Amino acid sequence: MSNSMFDHKLSSPSLDFQPLYLQVADSIKQLIVKRHWLPGEALPSEFRLAEEFNVSQGTVRKALNLLTDNKIVTRRQGVGTFVSEHTSQDALFRFFPLQADGKSDNSPKAELLSVELCAAPAEAIKALQLNKKDKVTKLVRRRILDNEFCMSETIYLPQSYFPDIHKSSDIPHTLYHYYQSKFNQTVHKTQDSIKAVLATIDDAKMLAIKAGDPLLLVSRITESIEGKRIEYRLSKCRSDHYHYQIELD
Amino acid sequence: MSNSMFDHKLSSPSLDFQPLYLQVADSIKQLIVKRHWLPGEALPSEFRLAEEFNVSQGTVRKALNLLTDNKIVTRRQGVGTFVSEHTSQDALFRFFPLQADGKSDNSPKAELLSVELCAAPAEAIKALQLNKKDKVTKLVRRRILDNEFCMSETIYLPQSYFPDIHKSSDIPHTLYHYYQSKFNQTVHKTQDSIKAVLATIDDAKMLAIKAGDPLLLVSRITESIEGKRIEYRLSKCRSDHYHYQIELD
């Protein structure tokens, strides 16, 4: 592989005997993490990858199948394999689980209320596995669905992964796409904990409801494809006209 | 295939050109649905299946991979492939998403409060796609976690899929396993809608809480592996010491 296009080699047979296709998948993922290929960019052909990694095309195919299942790459029939990209629509619908009770084709909108760099509160320190002195950028937003305030969001972003985000004047509605394109942080997994709570006086003002109304409190920890915890988000959601929907199989 | 062990043939090339492995996967699934192999039972070897279906072993392997991903069969390394079974533990943890806030190794328990055959209420008719005259068996249960009432459940089962279940004197805690072993209804998918509600006076009595306390209302539609809607379940869950947990990727 001396003339390899990659500055990367498969490690020699390791002690834990990881199957070859897993090693290949991991190598491809590392190259994506290192931005050897950018979001939306095409990967080389299976033939080319097999040659570069010095493995069979079948092994490359198995590796790409795994990365497709993990949504790290996307295959387009007859076209090729691409690094997955958080387009605004895709990220909105993949990770926004609140749905209108009736039919609604409207996308949720976001209103950014405040942005500040501050000391991380205790629950953000715990959720994001930070040190006590670490700072976070805190964003407060209000989401709008069908012309109604449907939820408030308080978002904590570690300063180390999102340097100077609090100075940006152009933070868009579609945060996951922004994290990927500006900070090279690709959202891969979210873990939501859901509780029912009563609206406080502040919640009531924010969402134009009454104090004491029931709300869903969704605490979300978001992991990047590198397995780092990059965002902690507390959402307080009305559920009188919406529901949180989830499918298990 | 005249001496075939299966009373089943692959259909001739169909008009929609479904890939061969999908046809094989579908045929194996149909044989499972028809109880040619029972839950927990081993499937024949890949070699044998390839011979029976008159396809390559590679095609059988692809079909079994798909059925494994769909949790319809389970592969045990070096042993073989088995029809998935809802053991009590497995079903409890796969489909019971309420978790204690702290660490808890206790399994949830269930207390059966009532069983009756009745006319289906409007929301069960809608959820289960029933006719207005269809009857359902209604079960009311209370779940206990860490010695505390954590949720009430109202469960609707169509009479056609669960004949005479209301006459059973031995309905166990682990319903999904019971559905599979006694009624040949294998739970495959659940779809949960979650709202926040205030406890009514009845809820408060049932769960030993105060009226007006916030509760999670989880409406669950359950599908069998045949794609039939077999259960509609309304759960009212305390979330003061528990949360509903979900991972997306």
TrEMBL record, chains A, B:
Record carries keyword Transcription: yes
UniProt-listed Gene3D superfamilies: Chorismate lyase-like, Winged helix-like DNA-binding domain superfamily/Winged helix DNA-binding domain
Matches recorded under CDD domains: WHTH_GntR
Record carries keyword Transcription: yes
Domain of life: Bacteria
Keywords attached to this entry: DNA-binding, Transcription, Transcription regulation
Positions of the HTH gntR-type domain: 18-86
Protein name: GntR family transcriptional regulator
Organism annotation: Pseudoalteromonas distincta
Taxonomic lineage of the native organism: Bacteria, Pseudomonadati, Pseudomonadota, Gammaproteobacteria, Alteromonadales
